[in-house]
Write a structure and sequence with these properties.
Elements: H1 18-21, H2 35-46, E1 57-63, H3 67-75, H4 78-84, E2 89-96, E3 98-100, E4 106-108, H5 112-129, E5 133-137, H6 142-148, E6 155-164, H7 174-178
Antiparallel strand pairs: 1-2, 2-6, 3-4, 5-6
Helix pairs in contact: 2-5, 3-6
Bound molecules: flavin mononucleotide.
Flavin mononucleotide binds next to strand 5.
């Protein structure tokens, strides 16, 4: 069950409740996920928009207890590995950084990371809608991830996502338990401007 929206998550404008209700806990229940359940999240991810519909996103996933999970876990910094090891699934989110030009050469795809960010957002929202939590992490060793996941040339890994059912915060250590609350947002009028940037 997802946690209730708190007073910290009241939007400035009327939006679908899924947006403020999604958040990133670190406590996971012991429940496992099937491959089909993980693929549902990646199905949502692949319907994201992308420049030229190039769909540059790539995903490598593992289920807790399998070799893929262990490989992804091995790339996390110790702080993240400490709690993410309890997740039901780990998903490495990456992208193909190039596109094939008309002359057949590989040239940089300027929007591979932007597009893949949209795919991750779809994944996180689908997880929330399906009663899971998804917690993105950039705290990982890129070289270790590349090696452990056999990253092909011309690809990058941007984040690792821990997914599962939300667990009891009591299972976290004192420091993490104190942080196990939905975070606020800065006011919309400090990040969105009509016509031009202020100043
Ligand atoms: C790209 C990205 C990297 C993140 N890296 C980490 C991380 O390494 N460790 C961690 O505990 N949380 C990480 N987070 C979670 C953010 O801290 C969290 O999303 C943010 O505080 C907003 O909170 P919310 O997701 O609960 O709304 C990351 C989130 C994103 C999107």
């Amino acid at each position: 069950m997802n946690a209730p929206v708190t007073a910290l998550r009241i939007p400035d404008h009327d939006v679908h409740p899924q947006f403020p209700a999604r958040w990133s806990p670190r406590a996971f229940s012991a429940e496992t996920m099937t491959e089909a359940e993980v693929l549902r999240l990646l199905e949502a991810a692949r319907w994201a928009p992308s420049a030229l519909n190039l769909q540059p996103w790539r995903f490598v996933y593992g289920l807790r207890g399998d070799a893929g999970f262990a490989a992804i876990l091995s790339a996390l910094v110790p702080f993240n590995a400490g709690w993410a090891k309890e997740a039901a699934a780990l998903i490495a989110v990456g992208s193909k950084t190039t596109r094939t030009a008309q002359d057949g050469s590989e040239v940089a795809n300027a929007t591979h990371a932007f597009d893949t960010g949209a795919a991750w957002a779809n994944l996180a929202l689908q997880a929330h809608l399906a009663g899971y939590v998804a917690h993105g992490m950039s705290g990982f060793d890129p070289a270790r991830a590349a090696s452990a996941l056999h990253l092909p040339d011309g690809h990058a890994i941007h984040a690792i996502v821990a997914v599962g059912r939300q667990g009891d915060p009591a299972q976290l250590d004192d420091t993490l338990r104190a942080r196990e609350v939905p975070s606020p947002r800065v006011p919309l009028n400090t990040i969105a401007f009509h016509g031009r940037f202020p100043g």
